Amino acid sequence: MLVVSIGGSPSLRSRSGVLLERARDWLQGQGVEVVTFQVRDFPAEDLLHARFDSPQVQHFQQLVEQADGLIVSTPVYKASFAGALKTLLDLLPERALSHKVVLPIATGGSIAHMLAVDYALKPVLSALKAQETLQGIFADDSQVAYGQGNVPAHLAPALEQRLNESLELFHSALARRPKPLAPGLLNERLISARWSI
């Protein structure tokens, strides 16, 4: 299984990034291959000018196409998800998420931003034809403490439990999702089938 995780924060130090790292570690512990992209790693010119021919953008598109699922993690700004993340998602083809399971994750200053996942992020994922978008996780800033030195980041127990439960659901959804048929395979099977009347 291959999962592409996308971090929408432009900052190196990010609570949504902490949750994304935890999700990656959990999935890798289950034997899932995880490739992570951060919006800040793409050249600003590629995003601002929608450079579909950029090698980094094309590499991103190819891995999303191969992926079984995506985790999209973003901070909430002004009642919506990060603008750089929207720009990156806009560089994907129209049906880029068909046959894929998506787990959205968001962090914000207070629970007043919780609906940003349902009313801002999920419609974009739906427009990209995600096969299944899970309920997702929202954490307010007080639930995620940054690590310092050798001390790792800390999640509030309730958040950690919700994250683990969501990851279990995500992993199960990945395992049960139908695999698309390779082009021409159906014709091959019909031609080689034994028919009786």
From TrEMBL:
One of its GO terms (biological process) is alkanesulfonate catabolic process. It comes from the Bacteria. SUPFAM superfamilies: Flavoproteins. GO terms for molecular function: FMN reductase (NADPH) activity; oxidoreductase activity, acting on NAD(P)H, quinone or similar compound as acceptor. Pfam families: FMN_red (PF03358). InterPro entries: Flavoprotein-like_sf, FMN_Rdtase-like_dom, NAD(P)H-dep_FMN_reductase, NADPH-dep_FMN_reduc_SsuE. Its EC number is 1.5.1.38. Residues 1-141 form the NADPH-dependent FMN reductase-like domain. Keywords: Flavoprotein, FMN, Oxidoreductase. Belongs to the SsuE family. This is NADPH-dependent FMN reductase.
